[in-house]
Design a protein that fits this description.
Blueprint: E1 4-10, E2 14-21, E3 33-36, H1 43-58, E4 66-73, E5 77-78, E6 83-84, H2 101-109, E7 116-120, H3 121-132, E8 140-146, E9 150-156, E10 159-160, E11 177-178, E12 181-182, H4 183-186, H5 189-200, H6 207-213, H7 218-242, E13 246-250, H8 257-270, E14 276-279, H9 284-292, H10 297-303
Parallel strand pairs: 1-4, 4-7, 8-13, 13-14
Antiparallel strand pairs: 1-2, 2-3, 5-6, 8-9, 9-10, 11-12
Helix pairs in contact: 1-2, 3-9, 5-7, 7-8
């Protein structure tokens, strides 16, 4: 097995990538590279920007030691074939719709198409946390990301669980009904912005902006209490059902955990849930590591059949 893989995380307006030592489960120092990307640009421009970051990281290792490049990719995406399925509904990367990303990057980076592997970004985050992060010493974990959207993945024995009686359809939570909408409506940045405007009539730039007001603004503080209550009510039944040893929380909103964690944990205790809770230390790097893990052949053999179900 080759020693290194490159892991990458495709964000809404950037790409981040790093060299991963897949033998030692580590990220060699100074290898993280981030580049801004215009997500409304042409397919060729987007791919060229990705290649700039990837080439920078590729220069840090000889090709004979490089197993390949993994991608933590948002959906909709054909993770098995490497084909982008983004549409105008996403308003991001829509010019990539129908593009075989593996084939196009193969030409631009002079690597065979099978050297590129793809996984859902939230699943890659959870796989990374179970491999090198806060859930590394557990068998079962649930990892969630709270940010622009609500990401989640269930892990058992290091592998994503995407179809089983104790997890929801596709092994994720964002699409499930909650209150007057779906979970993604309530556990994302836009909920904070919309809720703050409903209560105060004032516009906020994001959850961080509201968090900075929370110690002097009762409305802001109440919103975080409400968020913690909602999160406890929604996650509680799934934590009961899947019974993970650890819940790992990542994403930008996780930085405000002191503002909603007390209420959230109280709700879980009331439901007799004893799952441990940790805030991700690696954050985006966990998704990068999880995508690189696709080149650990033992993991790949077991994970490959699951990709078409994400």
């Amino acid at each position: 097995m080759k020693k290194y893989a490159i892991g990458s995380d495709i964000g809404g307006s950037h790409i981040s990538c790093a060299l991963i030592d897949i033998e030692n489960r580590s990220i060699p120092g100074q290898s993280l590279m981030t580049k801004e990307v215009n997500n409304h640009a042409s397919a060729d421009e987007i791919l060229n920007d990705w290649c700039i970051a990837l080439k920078n990281t590729m220069d840090r290792v000889s090709e004979k030691d490089l197993a390949g490049i993994g991608f933590a990719m948002p959906g909709p995406f054909d993770y098995l074939k490497g084909i982008a399925l983004f549409t105008g509904e996403n308003a991001k990367y829509e010019k990539l719709f129908g593009v075989n990303v593996a084939d196009e990057l193969s030409k631009k980076l002079d690597l065979l198409p099978d050297r590129f592997r793809f996984m859902n970004d939230a699943t890659a985050f959870a796989a990374g946390e179970a491999w090198i992060g806060k859930a590394a010493h557990t068998k079962r974990s649930l990892s969630i990301t709270l940010g622009t959207g609500f990401g989640s993945a269930f892990i058992d024995g290091g592998l994503p669980v995407v179809e089983r009686g104790d997890v929801p359809e596709k092994g994720c939570l964002w699409h499930l009904p909650f209150l007057e909408g779906i979970a993604d409506d309530y556990f994302s940045t836009r909920w904070f912005v919309n809720r703050y405007f409903e209560i105060t009539g004032q516009k906020a730039n994001g959850a961080k902006d509201i968090a900075e007001k929370a110690f002097s603004d009762k409305a802001a503080n109440d919103i975080f209490d409400e968020f913690g209550t909602h999160l406890g009510l929604f996650l509680g039944p799934w934590l009961k059902k899947f019974d993970p040893e650890m819940l790992v929380i990542g994403g930008n909103i996780s930085g405000a955990y002191p503002l909603f964690g007390r209420v959230f944990e109280t709700l879980l205790r009331e439901q007799d849930i004893k799952t441990g809770i940790e805030i991700s230390e690696f954050m985006e790097e966990a998704a990068i590591a999880g995508s690189a893990r696709l080149f650990n052949e033992s993991f790949w053999i077991q994970a490959k059949p699951l990709l078409s179900k994400m």
